[in-house]
Amino acid sequence: MARITLEEIATSTKIGTRSLRALEEEDFDQLPGGIFNKGFVRAYAKYLGIDEEQAVADYLTAAGEQPLPTRRPARSRNSPASASARVAPTGWPSPSWCCSIAGGFAGWRWYQNKKAGRRRSRASDERTRAARRCFIGKRAAGGYPRA
Fold it and tell me: What is the pLDDT of residue 102?
């Protein structure tokens, strides 16, 4: 089997040689800790072509850590289940969706009322002008009696 150096692995995995050496020598105090250690083990195992999950389990055993309970994998946005994520469990649409629809409807009603108000005011102005012309015209012609 070809000999692989830690420098080659470090270049490929972007893990420092100090951390890789600490993994090799099981000197886990030299590692940053937490989730980083598991990530290093996964990347190292992937580079070497061995089972990542088994490597993490072996690391946890060697380090004396308890394995965390496995979580469900995250759903992708393109999966059919993501469409149902927008609907609350009761079958009703989500509150944010309802607020968006209500806000759109309220905006549309406001615009329609404002537009109708402009039409009414124009029509009212025209009627007032016509009435004034009529009144002024009749008074000038002597059509209305003076008090």
Answer: 87
Q: Which residues of the chain have pLDDT under 70?
A: 1, 66-93, 118-124, 132-147
pLDDT for res 140: 55
> Residue ranges of the domains in the chain?
6-63, 94-140
Residue from 74, 72, 70 nearest 56 by CA: 70
Q: Own/partner pairs for 47-50, CB < 8 Å, 24+ apart?
A: 47/9, 47/12, 47/13, 48/4, 48/9
Of the candidates 37, 35, 36, the residue with the CA atom closest to the CA atom of residue 23:
37
